Amino acid sequence: MKKILITGAAGFLGSHLCDRFIKEGYHVIAMDNLITGDLKNIEHLFKLKNFEFYNHDVSKFVHVPGDLDYILHFASPASPIDYLKIPIQTLKVGSLGTHNLLGLAKEKNARILIASTSEVYGDPLVHPQTEDYYGNVNTIGPRGVYDEAKRFQESITMAYHTYHKVETRIVRIFNTYGPRMRLNDGRVVPAFIGQALRGEDLTVFGDGSQTRSFCYVDDLIEGIYRLLFSDYVFPVNIGNPNEITIKDFAEEIIRLTGTDQKVIYKPLPVNDPLQRQPDISRAKEILGWEPKIDRSEGMKRTLEYFKSLSEEELYRSEHKDFSSYS
Length: 326
Ligand code: UDP
Fold this sequence. Notes:
This protein is of the alpha/beta class. The protein has one domain: Rossmann fold, CATH 3.40.50. It is 37% helix and 17% strand. It contains ten helices and 13 strands. α5 packs parallel to α7. It is globular and about 55 Å long. It binds uridine-5'-diphosphate. The site of uridine-5'-diphosphate (UDP) has 15 residues, from α5 and β8.
């Protein structure tokens, strides 16, 4: 049985990856330090013989006994309010964590796929974003801790490929949504749905003319799966090119949830990108991949998930006290 290590396994994407590789018959070694992840997302897997979990911070030395065939590095805070609260950990997991996992991949002769992001393009001056665009990132802005960690991550990954011949893959993930997003992580999909379900007004930042392009999680996981088993070492955008302004998106959520709340406007966060849309030509050509689930279907499934949460979860204002993490 092939063995795969998944970091960030208790998070949104990590937990869906665990499900996929269990379904494909792998032995899954899940790792997470649970800063932003939640064991609830993978609780259903603990009873399986081919699933094990380590509560570990991958910024520290990582060891896994025995053989290892694949590594997926998905550990990282991933929402702007998280990396404002835990900036150092965000930098460490993308840099030191990636270094540790590349070292492990080299030692075990394992193939490693790292989770990069559309944030490497910063506030993009090229639209839509192709993989060849170098980006427009403010190194010292509030998002810099995430963006630059991910840019370093890509760089060290390519260096391990070139100098140590490690088999590496790099996915650049655009805004993704679906079940198991953290309700209060500050990102726009859980923020708007949570507000609608609690009967609060929807908070649009800025004038709402900024755009995003939302990909349903199942599509993203399929793209990552194909990339891992391809022989392509350069970055590949995975996302849904269907672009929408945040203002229109808020109105879509109001219609979908049937709430009679209104939209209210709050200041735009510093360095909030004005536009974002993936060019997925490369993924189409190399992986034969494109998204299949449109936003109305994906949002319906996502809403079902959020509706299934308990009252306590719906009204919980703070996920965790981050102050004890080094
Ligand atoms: N946003 C918003 N209201 C919210 C949360 C987010 O208008 O309550 C906006 C945010 O300013 C950004 C977009 O929605 O323009 C997407 O934000 P998110 O944090 O989900 O992801 P980003 O793509 O910025 O990393």
